Amino acid sequence: MTQEVLLTGTGAPPPIRHWPALDLPGTEFDPVLAELMAEGPVTRVQLPNGRGWAWLVTRYDDVRMVANDPRFSREAVMGRQVTRLAPHFIPDRGAVGFLDPPDHTRLRRSVAAAFTAKGVERVREKARDMLDELVGELLRGGPPADLTAAVLSPFPIAVICELMGVPAGDRHLMHVRTQLILSSSHGKDVSERAKREMAGYFADLIGLRETSTGEDVASLLGAAVGRGEITPDQAVGFAVLLQIGGEAVTSNSGQMFYLLLTRPALVERLRAEPGIRRRAIDELLRYIPHRNAVGLSRIARQDMEIGGVRIRAGDPVYVSYLAANRDPEVFPDPGTIDFSRSPNPHVAFGSGPHYCPGGMLARLEEELLLDALLDRVPGLRLAVPPDQVPFSRGTLIRGPEALPVTW
């Protein structure tokens, strides 16, 4: 199918820019995305996989508009070979990521209780105890150590499994499958097989809990299936998405601590002023480029205009939350980390109906990690030069593979 371009004014349409999947070191901002932002608020891109081209929206207000406007549909992506980042990002029919309201709203409502302030607080003490044990083991083992292997990886896994209702004995298995699903280096078949295996696991777990009154996610989904509010397939798809998303904290916290440990002045301020840590976490979440390229696209349901460009019905549209978080109209001097930034309406967890349900949980985990590591390991620092920290390659979510530290 040939895509046409209409502009409201005169002149040539934006060129189609190839956007490769760059393996970027550290917290470097994607140079291709920076160029696209400079070219205009609405550009055209071609990603490494899929077909055709898509619109890319980068300005903060436009990003939020697209994310919240029902005229842009996730569900309409089904059956379309839209240009995309990963070879295995193929939509599953009925999956929450590809549903529009009201179906999407009904599915999200089934687990809402687990992700409210009360639901997240329910796991705070257990999470703190698990983290204290991990940090204790780190200290007993002595330096040097890999902070990712010792703390930043096992902690989010333990927390999301606790919230999901996954038994402790199955945590490692869930972690291995999550890594295979998120990696683009193993190929589509390996990733899809890991996804099917995780789906099978949750199908069994949710099926056993259809009469449960538990507060964990598997029990909430099982109860919703039992009441006929959602289908078993919808419940399983949602569980897989939540389990995978829960491990993103490993990469985010890895980037966060890499950033802090390469800027000692920031660490010293956070140690001296613990009262600013929550605000600092939001600023770090705004600043950190937590993923490569873009996530999931939407399809325009009707002709409309954004940034002086006419988007036609049927055109695929991507939004970049990374770009929105660097919009100078909303965040003055966006390339600077400013712990006093207020307000800070960042969109690190997305916006609109598909806002990340685990945003509050992720903030809790980052808060606990910051307190534990800064207060209990006062001499924490990198054990190697910053450019020798190995970062993940061929992945959708950015972060260090290992974070060698000493103290």
Provide an overview of this structure.
With 407 residues, this protein is α+β, with helices and mostly antiparallel strands. 45% of the residues lie in helices and 9% in strands. The chain contains 17 helices and 12 strands. The chain has helices at 31-39, 60-68, 103-109, 112-115, 117-122, 124-141, 147-152, 154-164, 171-182, 188-207, 217-226, 232-246, 248-261, 264-272, 277-287, 321-324, 359-376; strands spanning 6-7, 16-18, 42-46, 54-57, 72-73, 145-146, 298-300, 304-306, 309-311, 316-319, 381-382, 404-406. A 6-stranded mixed β-sheet has the order 2-3-4-10-7-5, with helices on both faces. The longest helix is centred in the middle third of the chain and has 20 residues, at 188-207. The protein is globular. The model has no long low-confidence stretch (mean pLDDT 92).
Helix content: 40-55%
Whole-number mean pLDDT: 92
Unreliable spans: none
Report the major sheet: 6 strands, mixed
Strand content: 5-15%
Task: Quote the distance from N terminus to C terminus.
Answer: 59 Å
**Number of alpha- plus pi-helical segments:** 17
Strand order of the largest sheet: 2-3-4-10-7-5
Please state the structural category.
alpha+beta
How many DSSP E strands?
12
Question: Characteristics of this structure?
Answer:
alpha+beta; globular; 6-stranded mixed beta sheet; 3-stranded antiparallel beta sheet
Provide a brief overview of the structure.
The protein is globular, with a radius of gyration of 21 Å.
Write the layout of secondary structure elements.
Elements: E1 6-7, E2 16-18, H1 31-39, E3 42-46, E4 54-57, H2 60-68, E5 72-73, H3 103-109, H4 112-115, H5 117-122, H6 124-141, E6 145-146, H7 147-152, H8 154-164, H9 171-182, H10 188-207, H11 217-226, H12 232-246, H13 248-261, H14 264-272, H15 277-287, E7 298-300, E8 304-306, E9 309-311, E10 316-319, H16 321-324, H17 359-376, E11 381-382, E12 404-406
Parallel strand pairs: 2-3, 4-10
Antiparallel strand pairs: 1-9, 3-4, 5-7, 6-12, 7-10, 8-9, 11-12
Helix pairs in contact: 6-8, 6-17, 8-12, 9-10, 10-11, 10-12, 11-12, 15-17
